[in-house]
Each structure stands twice: as C-alpha cells, then as structure tokens.
Amino acid sequence: MARQILLTSFQTWLPHQRSNSSDDLLQKIQEHPPHNLELLYLRHLPVDTDQASQQVQKAIEQYQPYGVVCCGMAESRQGLTVESRACWGTTQFSTSLPLEVLIAPLAATTISHDAGKFVCEGLYFHVLEYLHRTQSSSVGLFVHVPPLTPENEAKIVQDFHHLLTRL
User: Fold this and answer.
1) Distance CA 6, CA 69 (A)
2) Which controlled-vocabulary keywords does the entry list (predicted)?
C-alpha cells in the first residue's frame, strides 16, 4: 500500500501576490505526482493560524497519513527550505525527521531553524504539537517555497518531488 502524505498550501496574503508559491508548487506536483505515494491535498488554507491549524488537524484525524508536509511561501528565499522546528511563546517542537539525511542529495534545498514567526510557524507548531499530543505515528514537516521563476522552477519541483519520495 502506498504511503499517504498530506500536503498543504496557503492562500495569498498581500495585494501584490498573484499566487502563493506554495500552492503553485503543489499544483505542479498534482499534475505529475510521485508513483509510489498517495498524495492528499489541502490547498488554499486561510492565512490565519487558528483556522489553518484546525483544518489540518481535522484532516490528520480523518486520514491518519504517514506524513504531513505543510508548505508556505518565503518571498525572500532562493531555494526550498525545510524547517527544523517551530516555536510558540517559550515552547518549541522539532520535526522527528532526519533532515540532514533527507536533503543530502537535493540541489536546491537547505535546512532552516527559523520558520518565520508568522502563520507558517504557527501552523507548523500546532501540527507538531498535535502529532505529539495525540501520539500520532505521522511525521510532520514544513517546507518554505520561494517564488517560482523560469530559472528555478524545474530545480524546485524536482527537489520537492524527491523530498516526498524520500520521506
């Protein structure tokens, strides 16, 4: 049986944004999904920590996926970044995934230890906290996606595709 991976993306939040690169990436993956995975999509989450977290937790409860990969746009970054942890106040949760091993063969992906102090970090924190609190066997990861351009799109899509198959 193929591993189920829940993938999430956000809506835009600033007037100049024509689209959210996290959702653009999921659209590309949806058009050409990895063969060995069953991907579940929760796209266009509201840019609101509480609402987004509730929707993702409900989907985790419903599907019990092997993994949850939340994606968000990072306009100032150049490549994909996998987030090692999320903080909320003085509490911190870290992903259980071996990020160094996971991204070792990827050309356009790095590890970040700062999920951004915005709705991205809020969602990631609440997902990791939920997985911990419910003692879920699911793994959680947050990936920041730069704006997709003709110059970087192929590398970004390829790295994300490989990242999913390596989970």
Assistant:
1) 6
2) Hydrolase, Protease, Thiol protease
Distance CA 70, CA 127 (A): 9
pLDDT band (50, 70, 90) for residue 2: confident
Segment 20-52, tens digit of pLDDT: 899 999 999 999 999 889 999 999 999 999 999
pTM score > 0.90 for this model?
yes
* DSSP-derived secondary structure letter, 167: -
Domain of 147?
Answer: 3-11+18-166
Burial 75-93 (b: 16+ CB within 10 A, else e): eebebbbbbbbbbbeeeeb
- The contacts of residue 95 (CB under 8 Å, 6+ apart) are 82, 83, 84, 85, 128, 139, 140, 141, 142
Give me the CATH number covering residue 50.
3.40.630.20
- Phi, psi for 27 (deg, rounded to 5): -60, -45
Number of compact structural domains in the chain: 1
Average pLDDT, integer, range 85-100: 97
